[in-house]
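Question (not urgent): is this output format expected?
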Amino acid sequence: HRDLHSFPTRRSSDLMTTIKILLVLCLFAFASCAPAYIPNAINAPLLNNAGETQLSVLGGFNGIDGQTSFAITKNIGVLANINYLNNTNDSSSTYHRHIFGEVGIGYYFNSKTKIHFETFTGFGIGNVDIKTKFINNDVFTKCQTKRIFLQPTVGFSSELVDFSFTPRFVYVIMKPDYLQYTTVNYPFIEPTLSFRLDRKRVV
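Got this back:
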């Protein structure tokens, strides 16, 4: 019978040092880059009946979002979204411009207990043009973006407020200008918890 003991080795010490260096490099990389992909606000309409139409306009750090949805039948709906930002800083000559639009079609179902289930899938396309500064250097991003999305939603309607949770799954195809014939592809998960006041019950 032999007792097993573990001792700190130089390999484990070198590994920790390497990890720390990589973390610092990642922080610098993220700080020095302008984003090529900017997600828009999720449109989770929670449709109820055939013929229902919804329109909304949202504002935030990522720009202005215009959203619309329409229930074609009692279970089939369509949606369309646009996201736009044109922000220029004259003092530093930096700018951030992007536009993105998408359309989708999906299935929705409402239970008698005010629980909503819906799933939309669709396609979007957009452009990003950004100039920012890192230390004393100009950093540019100019990119065409295409995106395929699948967004299942579970929602609940109360007397005044609607709640919903949507884990949007996206596959983004980016084509930066500096890569003329090459695309960069990434999958993402974009979970969102949202709520809204019921416009019909608020007076």
